[in-house]
Amino acid sequence: MAKQIWKVDPAHSEILFKVRHMVISTVTGKFEKFDGTVETEDDRIDTAKVEFTIDTASVNTGVPDRDNHLRSDDFFNAQQFPQIRFVSTAFKKINDQQYRLEGNLTIRDITKLVELNVEYGGMVKDPWGNTRAGFVVTGKINRKDFGLKWNALLETGGAVVSDEVQVQCAVEFTHS
To answer: Any bridge partners for residue 37, and if so which?
Structure first.
């Protein structure tokens, strides 16, 4: 079997997160810059080994003041910790479309094992002869596990920013 290297296509991919704000609403953000590879045996997705990096300074919630706060030491400290890194440890097939992705996620200088759900969208040849594969990756992490601890309490006792962060990624990978 031949080793196949797939590269993320950033023009057809997005890395999103959602966090509850003041208990009553949700804020959505994204990262503008990221890179990733998947290594497989031939085109067998069930053999996938994933590595992914995200540029923390590229965080974008649509509100410049909030984005600057997220880049600060209260959250990502983008100057000292410029990347979020994910390296898979297991990729388990549940059925033809569903997989469980496990791996080490590093945010700031803290690495934790996380589990993510993967929906496999399929594989096609594009008009230029490249093979493409699409995935939707979802999961939840606790931001405080990774040293993103800033918060304030409301009069009612709720938190301004929830500890739970929902991860929602739509990614497309290619190889020629």
So the answer is: 7, 51
Contact 10, 54 (CB under 8 A): no
Q: Exposed, middle or buried by CB within 10 Å (0-12, 13-18, 19+), for 135?
A: buried
CA distance 22 to 13: 29
Domain ranges of the chain: 3-175
pLDDT digits (tens, 9 = 90+) for 93-123: 999 899 999 999 999 999 999 999 999 999 9
Number of alpha carbons in the 13 Å side-chain half-sphere of residue 114: 25
pTM, whole model, 2 decimals? 0.91
User: Which residue matches tokens 């994204």?
Assistant: 30
Instruction: Enter the tokens of residue 62.
Output: 């649509």
Instruction: Report which of 5, 1, 3, 2 is spatially closest to residue 133, judged by C-alpha positions.
Output: 5
Q: Which of 144, 123, 146 is nearest to 133 (CA)?
A: 123
CATH number of 3-175: 2.40.128.110
Structure tokens at 50: 């994933």
Pairing of strands 161-175, 14-21: antiparallel
71 vs 88: CA distance, rounded Å: 25
